[in-house]
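PROTEIN DESIGN WORKSHEET
SECTION A - STRUCTURE
LENGTH: 202
TOKENS:
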């Protein structure tokens, strides 16, 4: 089974359709950069991917995940992150009639049978995810902010990242679409095949 690529318009509806806010879509982008899930995407719904990336980044950026990513079962890690990631996403998500069919095709599992899906992932991919979840978060800036931010940090640019997909200067009305375009570009490079565990019934 093959699923379509997510469009910029659909990403906007998932990430800020209800609120028009910017914070959630920022966290989705940052999570995709720092904890990429390309190896796991064939067994995840798009909504699961988005909730995981935003939820995990927000938790890591605040007080940490508060779960041992090295010893905990991967299903427990996902469940822990989903406990905050899905409510966070659902506050922002609003899918239009026009986008419902595409949204459904990008969420083939409908959230069912997560444990057997995750059990199909090879251990190297899981180990890489565990390591990335332990890393400190980056600081993301517009290009115009880079030198001032670096100077304020005493010349330290450790984990200071310029968002080159954004305009050099932040401009109202362009920031969310730029995030959505970049998220769509990243996810569109992920495998399109859907891997269905034998126990899962569609």
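SECTION B - SEQUENCE
RESIDUE ASSIGNMENT:
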């Amino acid at each position: 089974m093959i699923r379509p690529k997510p469009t910029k318009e659909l990403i906007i509806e998932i990430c800020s359709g209800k609120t028009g806010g910017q914070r959630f879509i920022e966290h989705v982008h940052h999570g995709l950069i720092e904890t990429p899930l390309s190896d796991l995407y064939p067994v995840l719904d798009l909504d699961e991917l988005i909730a995981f990336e935003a939820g995990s980044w927000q938790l890591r950026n605040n007080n940490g995940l508060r779960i041992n990513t090295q010893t905990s079962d991967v299903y427990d890690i996902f469940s822990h992150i989903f406990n905050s990631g899905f409510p966070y996403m659902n506050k922002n998500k609003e899918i239009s009639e026009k986008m419902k069919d595409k949204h459904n095709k990008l969420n083939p599992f409908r959230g069912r049978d997560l444990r057997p899906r995750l059990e199909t992932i090879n251990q190297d991919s899981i180990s890489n995810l565990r390591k990335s979840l332990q890393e400190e978060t980056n600081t993301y800036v517009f290009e115009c902010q880079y030198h001032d931010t670096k100077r304020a940090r005493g010349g330290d640019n450790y984990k200071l990242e310029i968002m080159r997909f954004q305009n050099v200067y932040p401009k109202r009305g362009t920031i969310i679409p730029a995030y959505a375009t970049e998220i769509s570009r990243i996810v569109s490079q992920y495998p399109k095949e859907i891997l269905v565990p034998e126990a899962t019934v569609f």
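SECTION C - NOTES
The first strand starts at residue 139 and ends at 141.
The chain has a mean pLDDT of 96.
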